[in-house]
Amino acid sequence: MRRVIPLFAIMMMCNQLNRSNIGYAESHLEADLGIGATAYGLGAGLFFIAYFIFEVPSNLLMKRFGPKIWLSRICVSWGIVSACMLFAQGPTSFYVLRFLLGMAEAGFVPAVLYYLATWLPNAYRGRANARYAVGALVAFSLSGPLSGPLLGMDGTLGLRGWQWMFLVEGAMSVAIGVFAFFRLDSRIEDARWLNADEKRELTAAIDAEDAAYLNRHGDDRPTFWSVLRDPKILLFVFVYFSVQMSIYANTFWLPSIVRDIKGTNDVTVGLLSSVPWVFAMAAMFVLARIGDRTDRRKPLLIGALVAAAVGSYLAAVASPWLALVMLTVAAMGFKSISPIFWPIVQRTVHPMVIGVAIAVINSIANLGGFVAPYGFGVVKQQTGSTQWGLIGLAVFSLIAALASFLIRENEDENPGLSRKRNPQRPHSKYPHPS
Fold this sequence. Notes:
This protein is mainly alpha-helical. It is built from 19 helices and no strands.
């Protein structure tokens, strides 16, 4: 929790910064390269097509090479591609580079989630997910204050401001990826910073949970295709698809919405665009902690989706300043879902295929990152406004909230993991099924 999770948070910050910084360069890309709203939306979304295609293969290669090598490689790769965005000449090269960025980033989130599942008992994963996922919110909060001054370097050493932005932020990822290679250990037994008793106790706690899961699910190892056909996996995919639509529609179009506020410029747009993510950060920590303490995550998931739906709808019909407030409410909903969603998946899916299941859910659901930005671009091109796009997000979030009632948390099957229902915790510092 102290050695690895902060590093994952920094990697996640760089991950989100490099995939979403085009939101601040949108007007500059249109002015310099002729990339209009529809082309911008398509380029933003093509990232997720590549992400979908290469997510599962990347996850399988991670198991072969180990998280230490693979996570470091992913971080260095996306940093290089992101920096190469400075060479974009028009829509075609913009599309190609965004596709390559999606290819480079594919597998990062499933690899981190798989890593946490093999290192931490379930009772700690919600907070671990929240602490690492906070990197995304830090990225969204800092991307404006960081990107604004970089855009202001227009003309320095013959480069445009947006070229400096891609170069500097891409180089940051390369440096962090190299550092991660020397910081991470693939397996518990490889960790020199744990003593023999800590390794043995932690491994025993996780093995006990896996044994309990196997007892519940049976010994037959599911196949990749059975995972794809599993109704609960499809349900998880739809719910997370709706979440990703909200996340990336706001990621790529929030600066554009904020520009509707009179008197804003690159710097003030960046600062105001960070407001929803700051509040979302606090909401995410609160919900993750409640989920870990009560072991009742489904009601929190439904409530967060309802908040996202209400906030998105009211933002569509409000004045620009009030729309920013409502988008803050929506962000507090959809951005706090990850640390309560993934622990539900991890304790519901067969442990023998949890890595593949996470990759399948994340890769298919991330197509929402193509649908929403591209759809917003088309809507704005045709109507000059993002109002109907926000209403569409509200509808999807509401349907996802209703669908979440069908999720079963298997809450009676691992009583040893619930701190509320089993206050007599074992003497081990790692709780495991009794």
